[in-house]
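If you are new to this repository, start here. Below is one unmodified record pulled from the training split, so you can see the exact layout before writing a loader.
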Amino acid sequence: MLNQQTLNRPATFSGIGLHSGNRVNMTILPAPANSGVRFRRVDLDGKPEIEARVENVGETNRSTTLAKGNVKVHTVEHVLAALAGHGVDNAIVELDANEPPIADGSSREFCRIIQEAGIAPLAEKREPFTPSEPIEMQSGETVMTLFPYDGFKLTCTSADKQGRFTQFYSTDITPQTWEKELSHARTFCFYEEIEYLFKNGLIKGGSLENAIVIRDDAVLTTEPLRYNEEFVRHKMLDIVGDLSLLGRPVRGHLIAVKPSHAANCEFAKLIQTQMNKPLRAAQTFSPPPAKNAPEPMPAADGAMNIEDLMKMLPHRYPFLLVDRILKIEGNKIIGIKNVTMNEPHFQGHFPGHPIMPGVLQLEAMAQVAGILLLKRIEAANQIAYFMSAEEVKWRKPVVPGDVLVIEIDMTKIRGKIGKAKGVCKVDGEIVSEADVTFMLRDA
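And here is the target side for that same chain:
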């Protein structure tokens, strides 16, 4: 395990912002261990700072924007990629405008000033993250999968929506390969996108000096392509920058098809979810909280334990998919399902990569909704039968160790038929949702 690193001395660069067109001066300063990378707006009162963390991502339209309150910094990915590529864990990036200079559209100039400033080791150890199991995501045409790997490797395929200029490249990422194979790759766009970008207030500082323009089969640039696969390599450069928002290096093999800033940041959040699981497990077995810590939420009206549930629901192992009701309040009910590796569906869904089937999450919503309907109409010897599901969406995988929080809002009750909006959450994030309809029949 290597030590954390920062710059040996300040590094400066001046230029214009790609999207704003504003003149900007940038200084990258050394920072202490465990402080991470942060951006400081010296042009604003109080010199506010934004930590380069994925939770601070505000926009991902054509670039990555960090936001904290009303303070924003646009187009941070090329600077972040240069720092991450060279293994710089801690730095303060001072700016006197709302985005770093675009330079030549790559990370080359930022790498140059980092190398000139020098890199200094710190006493504290670096703690890379290695996934315990593959992490997968599909978002539109984008597919991204991270596998455990002894190092950091990127394999990427890029193409536009018409399949033009499809390119493929793969390489292990080290400070040497980063600087040589990826850092010089310039940003690019298609000619037909330019009008849209201008109308939306973007690329005011764009030119052939800092971007490649593709028109039909022609490549417009002020110099020859720097790599045969320059477009896909720039996509990989962006991935390096966006994944650095995790705040820790990743040890894994990332395979990406048609990545984008939006997908990169969404995938970083998925990685962060797995990264935080050991912390959640440690908290589960930690000592009781101190007196000044918040007390656990007391049982609310309508709370039901598993014995109470089994008196109302006919379901039994392996199809009883709610462990407890936390509360019932008017037309709302909240239940939980503890997802464990002992459940039989994980034997085949999927071997070595267990994921709770989406249809079982849907069934869990129906069971919790059925309990609410039974309570509301005070039905005895009745069973809630699932009738239909609409607007079903599965957003994120649910895996062993997760606690599925099932929130139901009854929207309509007519006789013995009920309709409800169901949402399943893990750690406060929605993983699935649906509108469900069910009816009561005699047991």
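Two things worth knowing about this chain: Confidence is low (pLDDT under 50) at residues 288-298. The domain at 3-271 is CATH 3.30.230.20 (Ribosomal Protein S5; domain 2).
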